[in-house]
Write a structure and sequence with these properties.
63% of the residues lie in helices and 0% in strands. The chain is mostly helical. The longest helix has 37 residues.
Length: 153
């Protein structure tokens, strides 16, 4: 594995191997979900897939590929119908919580005092960093050592 082409062909072979595995598992899935085949025919297909994997996989895709696609489409339609029935049977979700109410519950926001509140009320309805800068006044500089740390600015 010293040259570029060695690595290139290794990746090509890995691609085809993974693609083969995907098709093989799709065929096995279809084989066991098919209710028209009896158990002995399913066992025969599995043995053929183990003994001569590439040939039996190609034969299965050629012989039963169209029905395989039809079964997959029918499974998708059935799954969508079941999902729609489930959604229709569930009760409606409760109304979403407004953002302000959830902020109040999380204690990250305190409401501003009402105009009738006394001037001694310490709750100004601001974030803690804003409260500190408000107490310093508008002329205080940002790099004041007594100022709390403000993320991002």
């Amino acid at each position: 594995m010293n040259s570029f082409w060695d690595w290139f062909w290794l990746m090509v072979w890995w691609f085809f191997f993974v693609a083969y595995l995907m098709v093989l598992f799709q065929v096995l899935r279809d084989l066991f979900r098919d209710d028209t085949l009896n158990g002995w025919l399913k066992a025969l297909w599995v043995v053929a897939l183990i003994i001569v994997p590439f040939v039996s996989l190609l034969i299965y895709l050629i012989a039963r590929g169209r029905r395989m696609g039809e079964r997959q489409m029918q499974d998708a339609v059935d799954a969508k119908a079941a999902t729609d029935r489930f959604i229709q049977s569930e009760p409606a979700a409760p109304e979403a919580t407004p953002p302000i109410r959830s902020l109040r519950r999380s204690h990250f926001w305190t409401p501003a005092p009402s105009p009738r509140a006394s001037s001694t009320n310490s709750s100004s309805g601001r974030w803690p960093a804003e409260q500190a800068s408000h107490r310093r006044g508008p002329t205080a500089s940002r790099d004041d050592s007594s100022a709390p740390f403000i993320l991002g600015g």
